[in-house]
Recover the amino acids of this structure.
C-alpha cells in the first residue's frame, strides 16, 4: 500500500473545494413554525448542467457498511450533475474525494461526518462510492435524473488505505 | 376536542393520494457499486410548478420534538411546489395531512413513519408542520426555492387530537 490517508472531521471550510456540508450548523437562516423550527435555507449548490435533459430527483440508496481501515481502488465522478448524500440515520459515514488533475484524480482526501451531516458533491468531483460505517447504510440521494451517461470511473493503479484520523 | 384521530403506519399505498414514501422498500431498481449498494431510483414526484422562477433546493430543518397525544390547530400548504422531508436520524416521525375540499382542509389523517422512511408531499397538499417525536428533530427538506409566496395557512376552528394508533 503506497498511500495511507487519515480521516479528518468534515467541516464546511475543509470541504469547500469539493462541495457543501448539509447540516444545522451555526445560526439558522429563518425561524419558522411559531418558533419551533430552524431552517438552514438552500444549503446545497445543485447543478445539473446546461443539458436541459437533466433534472433533479430523489433516490434512496442502501449500501453495505464498510470498516476502517478501508482500501479504496476506484474513484468516480458525474460530469453532468451534483450529487447529495443525506444519511437517514445518525451514524458517521466516510466521504472520500479527490481534486481533478488534468482529467484524473489527484491525491485523495477522506472526511468523517459527525452523525448530523450530509454532503453535496459539486458536479464533476472525483469521489469514492458510498461508504457507510454502520448498518443500515440508508441514504437519500439528490442527483441528476437524465437519459445520458453521467458516470466516469477511474481505476487507480493500486489501492490507497484510509485509516481513522 | 371534537375530533381525535389515530396514527396509522405509513405505507406507499395509504399515502398515495398525498405524495410518495421515500424508502428502501421492496426490490431496488438497480444494484450499483459492484453489488454493494441498491438504488431505489427517482422515488419522488418533484413538482415546482410551471413558474420558471422556482427551482429545487435542499434545506436543513431542526425542529422541536413533540409528544403524542398531539393537538393540531393549524394546517398549511405550498401551492407552488412539492416538499420532501428526509429524516437525518432513525426515529419515527409524525406526518399529518388532509385532502383539499373546496380550498380548505378536509378530514385530516396522521401517519407514523417506521424510522426508515421519508415523505414527499405533492404540490398543494394540506399538512401539519414538521413534527418529530424525538430529539434531534433534524431533517433535510427538498422543496421549491423561489422569490414568490408559497405558503397558505389554515387555522382550524378548533384543534384535533392525534393519538397513537
Amino acid at each position: 500500500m503506497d498511500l495511507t490517508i487519515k480521516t479528518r472531521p468534515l467541516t464546511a471550510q475543509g470541504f469547500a473545494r469539493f462541495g457543501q456540508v448539509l447540516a444545522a450548523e451555526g445560526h439558522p437562516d429563518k425561524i419558522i413554525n411559531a418558533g419551533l423550527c430552524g431552517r438552514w435555507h438552500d444549503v446545497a449548490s445543485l447543478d445539473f448542467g446546461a443539458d436541459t435533459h437533466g433534472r433533479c430527483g430523489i433516490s434512496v440508496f442502501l449500501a453495505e457498511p464498510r470498516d476502517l481501515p478501508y482500501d479504496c481502488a476506484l474513484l468516480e465522478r458525474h460530469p453532468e450533475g451534483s450529487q447529495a448524500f443525506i444519511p437517514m440515520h445518525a451514524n458517521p459515514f466516510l466521504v472520500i474525494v479527490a481534486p481533478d488533475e488534468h482529467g484524473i484524480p489527484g491525491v485523495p482526501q477522506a472526511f468523517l461526518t459527525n452523525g448530523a451531516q450530509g454532503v453535496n458533491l459539486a458536479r464533476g468531483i472525483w469521489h469514492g462510492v458510498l461508504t457507510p460505517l454502520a448498518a443500515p447504510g440508508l441514504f437519500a440521494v439528490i442527483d441528476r435524473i437524465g437519459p445520458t451517461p453521467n458516470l466516469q470511473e477511474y481505476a487507480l493503479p493500486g489501492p490507497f488505505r484510509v485509516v481513522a484520523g
